[in-house]
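Q: Second attempt. The first request was missing the SMILES, so the protein and magnesium ion are both included now.
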Amino acid sequence: MVVERTDPNPSAFIYSLRSVGYSFETAVADIIDNSISAGATKIKIFFQNTDTANPVFAIIDNGTGMDSKQLKEAMRLGSTNPLEQRNATDLGRFGLGMKTASFSICKRLTVISSVKDQKSGACWDLDEIATNNSWDLDILSKTQIKETPFEEFLPKDGTAIVWEKIDRLIDFSAKDFAKEFNVAISSLEKHLSITFHRYIAGEPGLKKISIFINEHQIEAFDPFNTKNPATQILETDEINIDGSKIVITPYILPHHSKTQTDEYERYAGEGGYLANQGFYVYRNKRLIVKGSWFRLAAPGNLTKLARVRIDIPNTMDEAWNIDVKKSTATPPIIIRDRLKSTIEKIMGKSARTYTARGARLHDSSAVQMWEQVIAEGKVSYKINPSHPLVSSIMEKLDPAGEAAFCALLDMIAKCFPTELLFSDYGTKPQDVVQNDIDLDALVEVAKLMIADWIKNGGMSRTDALRALEHIVPFNKHISYLTERLTNDNK
Ligand SMILES: Nc1ncnc2c1ncn2[C@@H]1O[C@H](COP(=O)(O)OP(=O)(O)OP(=O)(O)O)[C@@H](O)[C@H]1O
Ligand SMILES: [Mg+2]
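A: Got both inputs this time. The predicted holo structure:
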């Protein structure tokens, strides 16, 4: 066998490297991972010249920093072997993130780092690599370090990652760069506030961090709304595989009625509750995947308030298929059954929470069609917006349709002929009766709802039938319905 050394062609290779698939948000998060692994407590993000085609962006931390030798090694692509055992708190794995994340956004990456006020600096410029067709790292002189943008913010111990020649952050053909940049920064803030929320909040056992964007401090966004006492925490499940522990904690978020003004919408997340239900996978307490049932269940109305935290250690990276960007993970086959049974448990509980809402009229265990509202000593009635029949219609409407439908329900309630009812009741009470329900029509509606729960809520047929037992008016005709639905299904 003849062996011929065939190095990658640098100029061709850098363009593939740039297309790993980072977004601006995931790229910055990957850089912040390094800061956290280096023990930083303060991470500051700066940018300037955003109204020009030459913006500059920097992420500066007060971690341990790197000396010149460590910095040179850190700049290398594949600086560490992914198979190497990592410190239990390390957020890295592949020895690539700093470079691939940066190159996804910019063509010039400068890193300056300081240990006990001794500064070192190095720079990769993709244009130079392409021109020279060689991975020649620029080592910065003292003067060059001083000239690096935002150098003055580098602490005595810490690291600054500086991005110049930014060409993949915004659409530079747009008219207003600054506006585009602001949109990017605002979605960055959202992403960081949830990705690192446990670090920002200073969860016990973690070093609390603060992240600033141009001196504005980012607040933690806890997707489980644990501050609200109405959030239900179900029993945790622990799985041990070869000495690695996975902890599964299911949460059911508070119903609309148990939240303050704006709180319900705030915790809905982008795309609403329906889109954000599911597992939230945290690797070393840092969020990797949010709101996915991993195809073990379909997102549905009955589980829309359910979010399940899964904590995994960094020793399971291979088993969970963690990618370089730290933005995807897949549960190993061996735990899929456990996750399925977690979902089943939640479905039961969530269905009860969902169907038990608004049951304020007479039977406290059933969801009513009408709600009694007592405000300022006055009693009125409205159609229960959480009744599954109502909410399943609302979910199928676009925002304008939903608003119109809500207005209609409100109108029906407000125009209810109360006085006429009173007067009829006063004069001929025996003639005032509630219309009989057409049982054939009820069976048809029940069938539609069951089909919806099975398809969109991932419920079993048995659970769906059981849910009907708690919903007015189905609960009043449950034996008839069960018989008809069973016969019709044969
Ligand atoms: N802010 C920082 N402070 C101190 N050291 C850092 C910092 N950023 C990077 N490093 C060093 O550079 C190395 C390479 O970082 P890089 O992000 O490329 O890979 P990684 O973190 O090891 O793995 P991954 O590819 O999974 O992110 C790190 O392992 C770390 O030793
Ligand atoms: Mg890294």
